[in-house]
């Protein structure tokens, strides 16, 4: 893909290439996408009216930024998407550790090479995917990891200590002319945070007390939990002051956005009808808002994604056990979520031992809300009449779809129910069974049917 690009400094100048900083590059490409209507942050859901305008203003202003938000709010995904705003290919000097621009060399050795070779200086091309660096801040992170350290072997070879060639550069200088991210910045020891001060303000680096005048060209983006950032004071004040933009992220504000995120991110191994996905999304939102859950920890967006994948896996397991050709999730498959995903939720200290009970209650609430939202106004008396004479309808993990349909038979109003659930005019057997089980569960939760469970089977009967 780089065959037709300039191969020497002379060809680069002749083609009209000029040096642009990373921030100028990001600004120009962002403006171009705004004018053409091309997606600016593909894959980012729920931030169009809140977070993304602030990110765009920070980019246009040329500000380094820190993203504040609880876990699972897409901070890292958003940071990584910034790379898509860089030029697809950028010229670099061959063999340069710092990705130096051929028209703006930094190190003494690169400047000498460009002076000696003139317009014949060779040029390489670097793809934007290689212009991103990332470090998860941990207590054992060192200044050498981020900025660099003196290489004793090079010193022993006779180079002076002030020579940049004696330095083994860290992650930040190696991401020169790119985007560098520090995830969970407050977890860096304060003495390590100090090493980033010059990078952010003076754009040079200091190693072992020696100041190297290497003006770095980098967009620095950090993420942090607001609890750490604002209350514990673990980001030193001078470093906070050097970030130009502080942007708060959030969980999806609306149910539809939560559903869009689950549909986009979940890797489903079986068909999961929309009404089941809606139950999962409402469940996640109910957990987030529950007073029994630690709000400071948050409930990650990965929670409903993992829940949807678990529900799909339960449907696939049933199809394998029963030899069904169609694996379709039912509302009963959501019950497995409460036990498998409780480790993703931090509960308040007074709720110890009640975690499963709390999650089960919230799941029932989400199911009832979805039932009312989806099927409000429909006449469901034909379902209630199924069990009016003391009969039962048996569903559950070990009951095949064919058996559920046989028990129900031709039922008045079923077609309207399936249509309201978005299962179409000609649903397959698994989808029809999923719709029927959802109605039975909804009628139970609204106190129009009784329910008993055991051994992978669920029996719905009359409340009389």
Structure, described:
It is built from 21 helices and 14 strands. The chain folds into two domains: 240 residues, P-loop containing nucleotide triphosphate hydrolases (Rossmann fold), CATH 3.40.50.300; 207 residues, no CATH class. 42% of the residues lie in helices and 13% in strands. It is of the alpha/beta class and 464 residues long. The strands form five sheets. The chain has a five-stranded parallel beta sheet with strand order 4-7-10-1-11. Helix 14 packs across helix 17, helix 17 packs across helix 21 and helix 19 crosses helix 21. The mean pLDDT is 89.
Rg, nearest Å? 29 Å
What would the CATH topology of the largest domain be? Rossmann fold
Structural class: alpha/beta
Largest sheet: 5 strands, parallel
In whole angstroms, the N-to-C terminal distance is: 74 Å
Strand order of the largest sheet: 4-7-10-1-11
Quote the beta fraction.
5-15%
Instruction: Output the number of helix runs.
Output: 21
Enumerate the spans where pLDDT stays under 50 for 5 or more consecutive residues.
none
State the total count of DSSP E strands. 14
Number of domains: 2
Mean pLDDT: 89
CATH class of the largest domain: Alpha Beta
Architecture per CATH nomenclature, i.e. the level-2 architecture of the largest domain? 3-Layer(aba) Sandwich
CATH homology group of the largest domain:
P-loop containing nucleotide triphosphate hydrolases
Q: Outline, from the CA principal axes?
A: elongated
How much helix is in the residues?
40-55%
Organism: Asanoa iriomotensis
Protein name: Magnesium chelatase
Domain Sigma-54 factor interaction: 168-226
Region (Disordered): 100-120
């Amino acid at each position: 893909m780089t065959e037709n690009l300039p191969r020497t400094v002379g060809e680069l100048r002749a083609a009209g290439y000029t040096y642009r900083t990373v921030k100028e590059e990001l600004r120009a490409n962002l403006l171009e996408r705004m004018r053409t209507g091309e997606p600016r942050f593909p894959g980012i859901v729920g931030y169009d009216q809140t977070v993304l305008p602030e990110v765009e203003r920070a980019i246009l202003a040329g500000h380094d930024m820190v993203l504040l938000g609880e876990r699972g709010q897409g901070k890292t995904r958003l940071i990584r998407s910034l790379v898509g705003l860089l030029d697809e290919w950028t010229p670099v000097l061959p063999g340069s550790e710092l990705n130096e621009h051929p028209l703006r060399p930094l190190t003494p050795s690169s400047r000498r090479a460009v002076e000696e070779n003139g317009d014949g200086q060779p040029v390489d091309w670097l793809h934007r995917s290689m212009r991103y660096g990332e470090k998860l801040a941990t207590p054992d992170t060192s200044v050498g990891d981020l900025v660099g350290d003196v290489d004793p072997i090079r010193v022993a070879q006779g180079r002076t200590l002030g020579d940049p060639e004696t330095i083994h550069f860290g992650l930040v200088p190696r991401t020169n002319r790119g985007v560098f991210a520090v995830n969970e910045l407050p977890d860096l020891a304060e003495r390590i945070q100090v090493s980033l001060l010059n990078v952010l303000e003076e754009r040079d680096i200091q190693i072992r007390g020696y100041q190297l005048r290497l003006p770095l060209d980098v967009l620095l983006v950090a993420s942090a939990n607001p609890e750490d950032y604002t209350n514990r004071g673990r980001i030193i004040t001078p470093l906070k002051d050097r970030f130009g933009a502080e942007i708060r992220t959030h969980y999806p504000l609306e149910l539809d956005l939560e559903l869009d995120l689950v549909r986009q991110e979940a890797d489903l191994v079986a068909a999961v009808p929309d009404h089941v996905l809606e139950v999962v999304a409402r469940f996640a939102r109910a957990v987030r808002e529950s007073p029994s859950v630690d709000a400071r920890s948050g409930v990650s967006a990965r929670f409903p994604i993992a829940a949807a994948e678990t529900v799909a896996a339960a449907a696939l397991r049933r199809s394998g056990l029963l030899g069904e050709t169609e694996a379709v999730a039912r509302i009963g498959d959501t019950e497995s979520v409460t036990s498998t995903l409780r480790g993703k939720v931090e509960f308040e200290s007074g709720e110890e031992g009640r975690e499963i009970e709390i999650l089960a209650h919230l799941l029932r609430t989400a199911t009832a809300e979805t039932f009312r939202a989806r099927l409000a106004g429909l006449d469901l008396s034909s379902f209630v009449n199924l069990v009016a004479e003391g009969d039962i309808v048996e569903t559950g993990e070990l009951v095949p779809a064919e058996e559920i349909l046989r028990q129900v038979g031709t039922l008045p109003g079923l077609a309207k129910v399936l249509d309201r659930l978005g299962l179409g005019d000609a649903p397959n057997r698994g989808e029809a069974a999923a719709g029927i089980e959802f109605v039975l569960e909804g009628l139970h939760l609204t106190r129009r049917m009784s329910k008993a469970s055991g051994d992978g089977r669920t029996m719905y009967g009359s409340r009389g």
